[in-house]
Structure prediction request, 169 residues.
Amino acid sequence: MATQPGGAVAIYPGTFDPITYGHLDLVERGARLFDRLIVSVLRNDAKTPLFSVEERADMLREAVQGFPNVEVDSFHGLLVDYAAQKRASVILRGIRAISDYEYELQMALMNRRLSPQVETVFLMAGEAYSFISSKLVKEVFSLGGSISGLVPPSVEARLRNRVRGWSGA
Ligand code: PNS
Prediction:
């Protein structure tokens, strides 16, 4: 791994709508590997997320409090430009199942083409988290299913407020 003054910086980018224990498992693994890990929420006007970028970043900040080398940020535009701005040499991504591979491979190769000096590093989420996705968490929760153990309690509380707001209850 290319090192640099101040140590190896990695970016863990994503939508994080909302953060799950699967994401946090990756943060924990990444925090052990890199000197500085920046978890960064994409500002994407094309998507209609459940939570605003600020809400997602707040939930992340609450969840990563225990990791002194992890910080939370947001970005827009090309990820490789953001990585350059942060002097990051690594993009960190998680792979849950083989179904993630194609999408991740496309992104990693495109990012390599755009910026060969930035390496994408994939980590396997713990098997207990390999089925969790933000999308499924939202779906199960909105249909009244239990998401206990899938997201931090503070995220569950925010989901409860948001879904209550939706149904007008
Ligand atoms: O959590 P997600 O939605 O799978 O994360 C996707 C993300 C944010 C990593 C990806 O959409 C991204 O990097 N977007 C920034 C725009 C960009 O650089 N696009 C070209 C990368 S192939």
